[in-house]
Amino acid sequence: MSKTKIEELNKRFPEKDPTELLSWFLNEYGDRVALSSSMGAEDQVLTDMVLKIKPDARIFTLDTGRLFPETYDLIDRTNKRYNTKIEVLFPDYKQVEEMVNTKGINLFYESIENRKLCCHIRKIEPLKRVFKTLDAWICGLRAGQSVTRQNIQVVEWDDNNGLIKVNPLARWSESDVWNYIKENKVPYNPLHDKGYPSIGCLPCTRAIEPWEDVRAGRWWWENPESKECGLHKR
């Protein structure tokens, strides 16, 4: 897709109503577009929207092997609620074994390099496999989530992965997300009610205080500028 076409799409679709944008991509790209879900609140909103538009739409999630029990339960509840099957992607066990046996089970606390290695093996490598089957991917990113996401557009060219990246909720607020969840009775992770606005792997996620940034609980021992796993490198 050309830069001009991406600019046209950003002007064409209302920023506060993602359904038109989603309908266009789901119709235009069919099985070559998929929703990438971390099972967070934003992704659950998009799951509800996407499956209402296209009940057999592709949705995938990454099972790193270190997720919260509540997250696994949510995958099951979501499948049953929408009569769907979320694709679950796993890391290569040989790479995980080598990493853990070489650097330790909790290597990510030792250095940013180790943490990024762990994210790469458990997340990026499985993601690359599924990207080979796609021309576009849908994400639940919002500009208000962190300093690393302030400049995202609704439609972008993902130069790192060589495909289109669609951020339908880019201009939504946290209140927009939760209002939609309540109004549409969307299933969500109960950890959100316990101070976890952003939920990743269990060892790398903590609850936050009311005054903290919504991403403060992710890799809390690092500086805010480094708090990305590589999925959304900018």
Description:
The chain is of the alpha/beta class and about 230 residues long. It has a single domain (about 5-225), classed as 3-Layer(aba) Sandwich (Rossmann fold). It is about 40% helix and about 10% strand. Strands 3-2-1-4-6-5 form a 6-stranded mixed beta sheet. Strand 1 (about 35), helix 3 (about 40-55) and strand 2 (about 60) form a beta-alpha-beta unit. The longest helix has 20 residues, at about 110-130. The two termini are about 20 Å apart. The relative contact order is 0.17.
Observed structural traits:
234 residues, Rossmann fold, alpha/beta, 7 helices
CATH class: Alpha Beta
- Mean of the pLDDT scores? 91
Structural class: alpha/beta
What's the helical proportion of residues? 25-40%
> How is the main sheet built?
6 strands, mixed
Q: How many separate domains make up the residues?
A: 1
Reported CATH architecture: 3-Layer(aba) Sandwich
Secondary structure tally, helices: 7
CATH superfamily: HUPs
Strand/helix succession: HHEHEHEHHEEEH
- According to CATH, what is the topology? Rossmann fold
Regions with little confidence, pLDDT below 50 for 5+ residues: none
Order of strands across the biggest sheet? 3-2-1-4-6-5
Tell me the fraction of residues in β-strands, as a range.
5-15%
| Overall 3D shape | globular
End-to-end Cα distance, whole Å, is: 19 Å
Q: What is the number of strand segments?
A: 6
Radius of gyration: 17 Å
